[in-house]
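Input record, target 12 of the design panel.
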């Protein structure tokens, strides 16, 4: 458990250093992903003011971007937000499909896997 805890803390520290960017609220754009700190900061403001809107970490909509910019004009606490850098996943999916087509759909031989399972099960029976 201690090893896993340390590993997760190292990964978390890496993401904080490399994958988060501080930007001004005027440069916020749709589809940007808010960090946990920014998300909770905005949601806490909503709780205090009694608004029903809620922000999630799945990318900002154009309406939410406009709301953040208006909020920055009203409140000086929202001049800067932390967002996550993202990368496109589609090229990696395409490369996986291409590799599967090149390998003719055979990732591993199922007969080989079945023979290994029979050999292992034969020892226990």
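The sequence produced for target 12 reads:
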């Amino acid at each position: 458990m201690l090893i896993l805890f340390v590993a997760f803390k190292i990964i978390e520290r890496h993401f904080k250093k490399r994958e988060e960017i501080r930007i001004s609220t005027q440069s916020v754009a749709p589809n940007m992903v808010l960090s946990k700190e920014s998300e909770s900061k905005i949601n806490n403001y909503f709780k205090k003011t009694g608004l029903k809107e809620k922000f999630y970490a799945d990318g900002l909509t154009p309406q939410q971007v406009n709301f953040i910019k208006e909020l920055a004009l009203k409140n000086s606490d929202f001049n800067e937000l932390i967002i996550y850098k993202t990368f496109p996943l589609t090229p990696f999916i395409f490369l996986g499909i291409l590799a599967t087509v090149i390998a003719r759909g055979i990732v591993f031989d199922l007969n080989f896997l079945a023979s290994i399972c029979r050999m292992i099960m034969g020892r226990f029976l």
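DSSP finds five helices and three strands in the chain.
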